[in-house]
Amino acid sequence: MPKLALYNRAGSQVGEIDLNENVFGVEVNEPVVHRAVVAHLAAMRAGTHKTKTRGEVSGGGKKPWRQKGTGRARQGSIRAPHWVGGGTVFGPIPRDYTKKINKKEKKLAVKSALTNKVEEGKLIVIDDFGIKEPKTKEMVKILSDLKLNDKKVLIILPGKDEAVYKSARNIPNVKTLVTQALNIYDLLNCEYIVMTRDAVAAVEEVLA
Questions:
Q1: pLDDT of 3
Q2: Within 10 A of 15 (CB to CB), how many other CB atoms are there?
Q3: How far is CA 59 from CA 51, 65, 72, 78, in A?
Q4: Coil, helix or strand for 37?
Q5: CA distance linking residue 131 with residue 164, whole number of Å
Q6: At residue 21, what are phi and psi to the nearest 5 degrees?
Q7: Residues paired with residue 125 on neighbouring β-strands, in sequence order
Q8: What beta strand segments (E) does the chain contain?
Q9: Which class does domain 3-29+102-207 fall in?
Q10: Up-side HSE of residue 130: CA atoms within 13 Å toward CB?
Q11: What is the DSSP string of 138-169?
């Protein structure tokens, strides 16, 4: 069973915490992690891109000149694709980029990412942030005491905490998530993860 040091907000170790090996001690599965990241990034795409075909561009209903006798090539519309201001051939149309991924694969990918952070020593657990009202300076001090200043940090909370969220939102390279919104992309897109003791329990409950 993996163990991690438990810190207080001043950066001092106050004990140890046992981690569920079914969540934080699994075998890292890189192919599943890759599929989960691809699916997540695909789902983030809006898919609202659109260009107009020659039938959708306004105007161009009349032939620009008669069919024969002008010496020029025959033309049927000034909105044909080879005209300036004409329609686009094979342009993008709205589509859904979502890729299917099984729930078990998605869970395994998140477990693999968490396990990897534990193995690299980049998962830090604190007993509590102890922030009662939004104060960026207070959060900066906590991260500094944990030696995480100038690091890309993901803070995971067990539930909505406006004081902690607002204290961290203006700090560059710091992002806050609740356990319900945990995703593979944010786990990989950070250097360190900081979780409260309650957040660890909540993650274990969701993923175990």
A1: 86
A2: 11
A3: 16, 15, 21, 8
A4: helix
A5: 6
A6: -70, -15
A7: 6, 195
A8: 3-7, 13-18, 123-126, 153-157, 174-178, 192-196
A9: alpha beta
A10: 12
A11: HHHHHHHHTT-TTS-EEEEESS--HHHHHHHT
What amino acid occupies position 24?
F
Amino acid at 111: K
- In the chain, where are the structural domains located? 3-29+102-207
pLDDT band at 96 (very low <50, low <70, confident <90, very high): very high
- The Cα–Cα gap between 178 and 162 comes to 11
Residue 160, CB-side half-sphere exposure with 13 Å CA sphere: 1
Q: Which of 97, 88, 113, 122 has the alpha carbon at shortest distance from 27?
A: 113
3-state secondary structure at position 163: helix
State pLDDT tens for residues 125-157. 999 898 999 999 999 999 999 999 889 999 999
Distance CA 167, CA 95 (A): 38
Give the count of beta carbons closer than 10 Å to the beta carbon of residue 203. 22
Q: Is the pLDDT of residue 208 over 80?
A: no
Contact 7, 146 (CB under 8 A): yes
Its pTM stands at 0.83
Lookup result for tokens 């260009």 = 51
What are the distances in angstroms from CA 47 to CA 41, 184, 185?
Answer: 12, 21, 19
Residue 114, Cβ density class (10 Å: 0-12 exposed, 13-18 middle, ≥19 buried): buried
* Confidence bin at 191 (pLDDT 50/70/90): very high
